[in-house]
Specification:
Radius of gyration: 31 Å
Order of helices and strands: HHHEHHEEHEEHHEE
Number of strands: 7
Mean pLDDT: 80
Shape: elongated
Strand content: 5-15%
Structural class: alpha+beta
Helix content: 55-70%
Length: 302
């Protein structure tokens, strides 16, 4: 009987020691997490106990801490880029607004002291400048609206059978006047048979339109468009104002090349968002002075 009591006492003492060590490990983890979060450091949790489950718990918490740090770093980088983007947008908006206000003041002054005929000619020149600045503001506002619409879009995509050949022809026709005004004659190559894809026609038209708009900004005067049998669209043009580093940033939000006038830096970013929503891929390359934007969608058989 005494032996049984002694064994029970040993078991109870062992359990109490086990509980003490578990509580100690839990307290160490609690204190460690508080210290790590408060100090915003890269330290990890350490415990003095040797219990396997507590060590496993500490390892799991350390894994979560690493993920939390990664998420925080992504947030901080995104916050920095957002602030830079807001600063750039503010500058883009403020510049034409300042010009508009300035020319309005000039018009008031000129009207009060100039002869009527001379005043009319001066006013006409000022109005042309103001219209140009207004167009820049309109374009910026429109692209910001489109980008916000694309990134916040939650409604289901209306899928339909789309002929890439026809969609390409229609998009080029829409931009034909703008291409001609910039002395660009597009050269288009495509198969005679229809290339069918399961897409959304409106979204595809916006993608192609934004790519062509990008070519208008950077082209040295040429544009070649090739549609392959596999459903790949390649838009190529000489672009002496670009280099490989700048090309790698063309799909970033609000990125603009310095010599790209009237550019918001949202066109290709919107194209990328829409392409990915449609299950396609888009990328850009630069070689021997030629910028190439490649657009790919899965093709339907038959």
């Amino acid at each position: 009987m005494q032996a049984i009591i002694a064994i029970l006492i040993c078991i109870v003492v062992g359990l109490l020691i086990k509980i003490y060590l578990l509580r100690k490990s839990a307290a160490e983890m609690e204190e460690g997490i508080g210290r790590i979060l408060k100090a915003d450091s890269n330290m990890l949790l350490t415990i003095s106990g040797r219990d396997g489950r507590m060590k496993k718990l500490a390892a799991g918490l350390n894994m979560e801490l690493r993920e939390l740090r990664k998420a925080r770093n992504r947030y901080e980088q995104g916050d920095i880029r957002l602030k830079e983007a807001v600063a750039n947008i503010s500058h883009d908006i403020r510049t034409p607004l300042t010009a508009l206000c300035g020319y309005q003041d000039l018009m008031k002054q000129e009207l009060s002291r100039m002869p009527e005929q001379e005043s009319r000619e001066t006013m006409q020149r000022y109005l042309e400048i103001m219209e140009n600045r207004t167009a820049v503001l309109t374009q910026l506002t429109e692209e910001l609206f489109r980008y916000a619409l694309v990134t916040s879009e939650t409604q289901e995509i209306a899928w339909e059978e789309v002929l890439l050949n026809r969609a390409l022809e229609e998009s080029v026709a829409v931009f034909y006047a703008a291409l001609k005004n910039n002395k660009i004659t597009p050269v288009i190559s495509m198969p005679e048979n229809d290339i069918k894809c399961r897409l959304n026609k409106n979204m595809l038209s916006r993608i192609i339109g934004n790519i062509i708009g990008n070519a208008i900004k950077y082209s040295d005067g040429d544009l070649q468009i090739v549609l392959s049998q596999e459903g790949e669209l390649v838009f190529s043009n000489h672009a002496s104002g670009l280099d490989e580093i700048q090309t790698g940033k063309l799909f970033e939000r609000f990125y603009t090349v310095q010599n790209a006038s009237k550019s918001t830096g949202l066109g290709l970013s919107i194209a990328k968002q829409l392409t990915e929503q449609l299950g396609g891929t888009i990328d850009a390359g630069y070689r021997d002075g030629v910028l190439s934007v490649r657009l790919r969608f899965p093709v339907e058989e038959g």
